[in-house]
Design a protein that fits this description.
heterodimer, A: mainly alpha, two-stranded parallel sheet, 10 helices, 72% helix, globular, B: 294 residues, alpha/beta, Rossmann fold, Alpha-Beta Plaits, six-stranded mixed β-sheet, five-stranded antiparallel β-sheet
């Protein structure tokens, strides 16, 4: 085994590497989170439709809004803490960090795994909204007025996902850097509370925890700025994180 | 001689503490190098620098003739942080190996690898339920991924029962064929059985390094016990290097000396000998001598 064969980016099979990161999630709390976080929002939307009746627009819009503002940021907070703890608890990362070339990609790979999980949550939510809509249409007609616009819902969720990237990187970086769940928990809750308090503020568009909910803003300019900042900022923050972490001593 | 690992003036300082103090490590290619030292001697810090987990404060490290760079390094199989290194306990043995192979971008024949370290049939068992010995073996299996030319094992014999130690010793010798192996351990008697070379670290400094064979083939020693107070002066008169250790005199016999000749001369001089025992080289004694003398 030569050094060049192992460090040559051409020889690196990115999909296999991400798959190895996803393998680590087997049997971890990430499975529970993946069921609980979108599940809770869907359950709430379903119960509101069942008990009070609603419109299709309110069913999908309300569910996405609750998701973007509260449950998804909370889920990201928990997800990043769980991912970091997997490595920190038993210094499990040491053997991997000692491997040639691993430092140059291992942090980004883990982030990619987190982004994939977050993307799956959005997909689960989208499918769940569709399933809820179908349920009411077939079994309780009239309980929900109209049909859910799945294309609008899908597009909005996609934008929410994109805008959440900076928040994801910030939470991930905090969890990873401090080797403790306390700083990411404190700052994560702070960010979520801030976003709840400053919901209507135009300036809130620059706060990472508010970027996802801003995809529901009536002003398209605000939504676009939040998306650009969330997605672009997320990419830039990920690069900075990689540069900082790969030079870190463990 | 070709060196698998060579360091020059390797130093690692922390705020108020020099953990590794200018060591010149020379690990010959193909050797089994016993890296010895007490707790806090600087072994782990040195190993972590070789593995790239810590940056040296000064000095350099070369692996197989190429200076170690942070961004371009050869594959080193490592088992650090005993017992057996850290694992993802919620994953199976096979998945733990796959995670490492995945990080390298390599295919990994998991059953063959587990079979090689004596863990055949344990692929699906979660590592959280493994015994210490099984974790040690899995750690070694992980270190073998990619068939590295250099393997570093930190305390591979820790926490094993006598049968486990014996089996592990056999395994280490088998695995060392065709590669260089550095073993850190406190079990000196075991290191003596497997190592070809040793490096002795004390308080961050390398106080001895070289082939074990050179020590074994050194001048013979005998332990002489006697209640006669004249023993010390007689040994001195004979021009022999002796030191008193726990009631017996450890005597180094130079050229032309044999235990029988020493016995005869002491008896002729009127010293009553209780016991005169030829001694073989003992790494543990050598270790304590060198560390206490340093």
């Amino acid at each position: 085994m030569t050094a060049s064969a192992l460090t040559d980016p051409i020889a690196v099979r990115t999909s296999g590497l991400i798959a190895s990161e996803l393998t680590k999630l087997k049997g971890s709390l990430v499975y529970v989170l993946s069921a609980a976080v979108p599940g809770l929002v869907l359950l709430l939307g379903f119960l509101i439709g069942l008990m009070e009746g609603t419109t299709a627009m309110r069913l999908s819009g309300g569910t996405v809004a609750l998701w973007a503002q509260a449950l998804m940021p909370l889920g990201v907070l928990a997800l990043t803490v769980v991912l970091a703890q997997l490595e920190h608890q038993p210094r499990a990362w040491d053997p991997l960090l000692a491997l040639p070339g691993a430092r140059r990609r291992i942090y980004l790979l883990k982030l990619a795994a987190a982004a994939i999980v977050l993307g799956l949550w959005h997909l689960i939510l989208w499918l769940g909204i569709g399933a809820t809509d179908l349920f009411f249409a077939h079994f309780l007609p009239g309980q929900v007025e109209g049909r859910v616009d799945m294309i609008w819902t899908g597009e909005t969720l996609l934008r929410v996902f994109g805008a959440a990237q900076l928040m994801l990187v910030v939470q991930y970086a905090l969890a990873l850097y401090f080797r403790s769940f306390v700083p990411p928990l404190v700052i994560g809750f702070g960010g979520i509370l801030l976003s709840l308090g400053a919901y209507a503020s135009e300036k809130g568009v620059v706060i990472p925890w508010m970027m996802p909910i801003n995809q529901m803003a009536s002003d398209p300019w605000r939504a676009d700025v939040a998306l650009a900042l969330g997605l672009g900022g997320g990419i830039v923050a990920a690069i900075i994180l990689q540069l900082v972490m790969q030079r870190r001593e463990w | 001689m070709e060196w698998a690992v060579e360091s020059l003036g390797l130093t690692k300082s922390f705020k108020h503490h020099v953990a590794v103090d200018g060591i010149d490590l020379s690990v010959p290619t193909g050797s089994i190098y016993g890296f010895l030292g007490s707790n806090g001697a600087g072994k782990s810090t040195t190993i972590r620098m070789i593995l790239g987990l810590r940056r040296p404060s000064s000095g350099s490290i070369s692996l197989f003739g190429e200076e170690l760079r942070h961004d371009r390094r050869p594959l080193i199989g490592a088992m650090a942080d005993s017992p057996g290194g850290a694992f993802y306990d919620h994953l199976s043995a096979a998945d733990n190996l796959r995670v490492t192979a995945g990080a390298l971008g390599l295919e990994c024949d998991v059953p063959a690898l587990l079979d090689r370290v004596g863990l055949a049939g344990k692929e699906r068992q979660k590592v959280g339920g493994f015994s210490t010995g099984m974790r040690q073996r899995l750690g070694i299996a992980r270190a073998l991924i990619g068939d590295p030319a250099l393997i570093i094992l930190d305390e591979p014999l820790n926490g094993l029962d006598p049968e486990g130690i014996r089996a592990m010793r056999t395994l280490l010798v088998e695995l060392a064929e065709g590669r260089t192996m550095i073993i850190c351990s406190h079990l000196l008697s075991e290191i003596e059985k497997v190592a070809t070379h040793i490096g002795l670290l004390s308080r961050g400094r390398l106080i001895h390094q070289g082939p074990l064979e050179d020590l074994r083939s050194g001048p013979p020693t005998v332990a002489v016990s006697s209640a006669d107070e004249r023993l010390a002066s007689q040994l001195h008169r004979l021009g022999l290097d002796a030191r008193c250790d726990g009631g017996a005199h450890q005597v180094t016999l130079g050229d032309g000396w044999r235990p029988a000749r020493l016995n005869r001369l002491l008896v002729e001089s009127g010293v009553e000998i209780d016991a005169l025992i030829p001694r073989k080289f003992c790494l543990e004694e050598f270790y304590h001598d060198r560390v206490s003398a340093y």
